[in-house]
Amino acid sequence: MFKRLCTVAFVGAISFVLTTAAHAAVFVYEDYNAKSKSNKSAGKLSNQLVSVVSTYDDESELFMWDVQLKSKAKVDGFWLVVNNGPNPKKADVNELAIMYGDLDKGVVSTYAYNGKNGPDSINDPGELLQTDSIDVAGKNFKFEIDATDINSWAGWDTPSAGSVNGIGFDNKIGIWFHVMTRSKFSYNGGGDIVGLDGFKKQGWYDLSNKTTTTIVAEPGTVALFGLGLLGLGLTRRRRQ
């Protein structure tokens, strides 16, 4: 009897794991003809991009952002907000996360986004959530963020119907991505970006409701190893 109960429990556990893993998916956004826009008041920093690629794993909550800049681009900083629908700069306060990146130092710090059309979330409300590293190689930069802690932050307000909290997207993506030249960031003693003190020029890559492709994880792979986390060697510091 005991042996039979153990067998039933084991089979049930395996079924649960496989069912859970079968629903795991990686959503992929790719634009190999990316173009940033700008205007006179922003310093005319347009056409700085070659490509933008992003992925989001809904099981591990791993977010990846990979950008190829043009050979003559002068970009040294950025801010970024993503969601799964309309332009993220129209989101409500404390619904999404905003990422600030310093390419010279290879650092990206994530804050709660205040819902305003500007980069001042770093000061208002100034809620630092996490800091990660950026891999910069020539005119290419890439970073990977384990957004688990970011997305589970207790300060998020309830998102609008069908929206996400923090960092993430699914079969649709919305992007609010600004690139900058002569960026001036300030840091605290722990290496977190705590201020965006100015920049010379800016350009933007704004998109809404763009369709993504989906890679469905094979049952068991996610459960055993954690899809997307194999061999990545993520560098992350939690908010103190």
Low-confidence stretches: 2-21, 220-235
Number of domains: 1
Pattern of helices and strands: HEEEEEEEEEHEEEEEHE
Outline = globular
Give the C-alpha Rg.
19 Å
Number of helices: 3
Strand order of the largest sheet: 13-10-4-5-6-7-15
Query: Largest sheet, described in full?
Result: 7 strands, antiparallel
Binned strand content: 35-45%
Taking the alpha carbons of the first and last residues, their distance comes to 51 Å
Report the mean per-residue pLDDT as an integer: 86
Number of strands: 15
Structural class: mainly beta
Helix content: 10-25%
Task: Give the tags.
240 residues, mainly beta, seven-stranded antiparallel beta sheet, six-stranded antiparallel beta sheet, 3 helices, globular
